[in-house]
Fold this sequence. Notes:
Radius of gyration: 21 Å
Order of helices and strands: HHHHEEEEEEHEHEHEHHEHEHEHH
Structural class: alpha/beta
Mean pLDDT: 88
Distance between the termini: 45 Å
Oligomer: single chain
Shape: elongated
Number of helices: 13
Amino acid sequence: xxxxxxxxxxxxxxxxxxxxxxxxxxxxxxxxxxxxxxxxxxxxxxxxxxxxxxxxxxxxxxxxxxxxxxxxxxxxxxxxxxxxxxxxxxxxxxxxxxxxxxxxxxxxxxxxxxxxxxxxxxxxxxxxxxxxxxxxxxxxxxxxxxxxxxxxxxxxxxxxxxxxxxxxxxxxxxxxxxxxxxxxxxxxxxxxxxxxxxxxxxxxxxxxxxxxxxxxxxxxxxxxxxxxxxxxxxxxxxxxxxxxxxxxxxxxxxxxxxxxxxxxxxxxxxxxxxxxxxxxxxxxxxxxxxxxxxxxxxxxxxxxxxxxxxxxxxxxxxxxxxxxxxxxxxxxxxxxxxxxxxxxxxxxxxxx
Length: 352
């Protein structure tokens, strides 16, 4: 379901724009669709046709998504495995400090070699209402004041649905525009469409390396934009929107954590209106990549910081529950082994 389909269904039972707006706001707060506001009961506010016609629409909206399982981590995050109406699953993550990471696709077509989500390929797009449903579900658990499109999928490959969701969340969802973060590997359409929006989100760009050849290896189906060009496009959007760019760098031991990369990143990002987020790789058994040592991570951050680049270390939320992006869904689908998680928790194998 897309958002306009939801609105058309409401209009079909006689809801006027004021009624639709109120229903939107109630749902996006995690409340029932007919929740009362402003000291008015819904039966005093909605026409009879709306009250009588709302239950089947509410049932359809409730069926968009449900929480299949919850996984609490030591870092304060709560990973949600969300089951959609057709049985497919996506992940969303309640982050510390009232943030939420949402998915925009089931799977992903970019095929980043270090990403569990990309290993399954793209299975289907999420409708804009399915994206918003992740926010509604999360708000039933705890407050959400920031939404980042950094979960499963490449948002630029589901552009219309993602932009509809951003518009909705930035208006009826009552989320500040700079607290809506569109994450992308660098699709050129992003730099064309985002400046035209009424609700302009902040932007996160997956950089990962300064080397064009290495980036092509790590992101095999991403647009062929050289890192230097990508940074220039990001800088232009940052200056126009007034929001600093978040450059993402998944740190892989022996791959993109060298002194040469540190020096090149410092030259590339010096003076730019942005922040470099170092994301140490979340290893799982059988991976081709490993997480760098804590000493190497600290060195990488310190070097960039000392050379004028604002740098932060952003560990993938939920590592103690093997909950890096795509891992919960992969475990549920039997794609990866759960033995490491069981050992960490002190659990026995099913046959023991």
